[in-house]
Amino acid sequence: MPNRKKSLIAKKTPPASSLCEETTPYRVNGSVTPHAYRFIDLFCGIGGFRFAFEKAGGKCVFSSDWNKYSRQTYAENFGEEPHGDIHSIAVADIPQHDVLCAGFPCQPFSIAGVSKKLSLGRAHGFDDKEQGNLFFTLAEIINVHRPAAFVLENVKNLTSHDKGNTFRVIRDTLTNALGYTLYTKVIDARSVVPQHRERIFLVGFKEARHFDFPVYPAEGPKLESILDANVPDKYTLTDHLWKYLQDYAAKHKAAGNGFGFGLVTGKDVSRTLSARYYKDGSEILISQGPRKNPRRLTPRECARLMGYPKDFKIPVSDMQAYKQFGNSVVVPVVERIAQAVVETLQRPVNFRPDLVLYDRKSQKQIPSATVNERLVKYTIPTKRKKS
């Protein structure tokens, strides 16, 4: 790992791409022109990043994912199949691009992934031979192609994994080794979809640009906004599975653990949808009243829960669909980030926003005209501590 990181310090000039006819970046005076920037979609899954960045005016020039079922769903919705394993293509052959997007595999760093690997005596984090070092593959691509910006996504636990050492290596690689200005934020998707889903986003700029993460609504939708009125009986839990989940929850509750199923109604917000949802659906069970066992979400409901468009095509089995949506980004979250990144790239490099004043008590913005008219206690807002 140290040798790989050290090799990133020497910057390289990217050669012309053999995979894309157009290799000249769309730039004017150092800034990306509106509705003309190019992006690549790495570890693309089923295209959550692509939906978001195309909506912000971008053109996808390359995509890649190792999973054949995800490539099938991606191809069905975008008309082109992504390349396979990122290691099967030379870094120099990836087309030049303005923005690199990647939801790099989270299993080596997620709470559930780490717990499972520990129970099996397997390595996790950077020591995971299959997925742990994929971050350094991303770093190599960034180093060679020097995009104007990148947007990376991972689980919240990335910041605390290995007592914070994992995140320190990632931050040091992106900033010190690669020279990018980095902004990070954990965002809960419950403001735009009815799901409690915290993910960390890392946004970097080659030039030292000012960037603000978008503001999300304080209150989001409830599950009733994504649920179907008529659902086939096959999604209702069998008596055997429902009894097993209740007994399992009771056993762990008695032991003082927090494990158990998540039973919700249309008035609630769900737990995080995971890639293991196909196994028993325990994290999100929809109540069907006292006289009927609860049910799983359907794949179409999962698509809505992740913010995918109404006409999104699901050509795979239910099991594969659950895995795909559980591994996906939440599209409306990324849409706002994509728009903010594009707007940042369109501004002059030396752009700095006007100072915005907020009332200390109400945390509401103070109109500039009133500041000199009355005595006001104000402050620049800081991240609130959780109570």
Describe the structure.
With 387 residues, this protein is of the alpha/beta class. It has 3 domains: 237 residues, Rossmann fold, CATH 3.40.50.150; 103 residues, DNA Methylase, Chain A, domain 2; 33 residues, no CATH class. 29% of the residues lie in helices and 13% in strands. The chain is built from 12 helices and 12 strands. It has a 6-stranded mixed sheet, sandwiched between helices. Helix 2 crosses helix 11.
Provide keyphrases for this structure.
387 residues, alpha/beta, Rossmann fold, DNA Methylase, Chain A, domain 2, 12 strands, disordered N terminus
Mass-distribution shape: globular
Succession of helices and strands: HEEEHEHEHHEHEEHEHEHHHEHE
Number of helices: 12
Spans of at least 5 consecutive residues with low confidence: 1-30, 108-132, 371-378
Radius of gyration: 23 Å
Q: How is the biggest beta sheet arranged?
A: 6 strands, mixed
Mean pLDDT: 84
Q: How many beta-strand elements?
A: 12
Span of the ends, CA to CA: 39 Å
What is the CATH class name of the largest domain? Alpha Beta
Q: What structural class do you assign from the helix and strand content?
A: alpha/beta
CATH topology of the largest domain: Rossmann fold
Order of the strands making up the biggest sheet: 4-3-5-6-8-7
The percentage helix is: 25-40%
- Share in β-strands: 5-15%
Name given to the CATH architecture of the largest domain:
3-Layer(aba) Sandwich
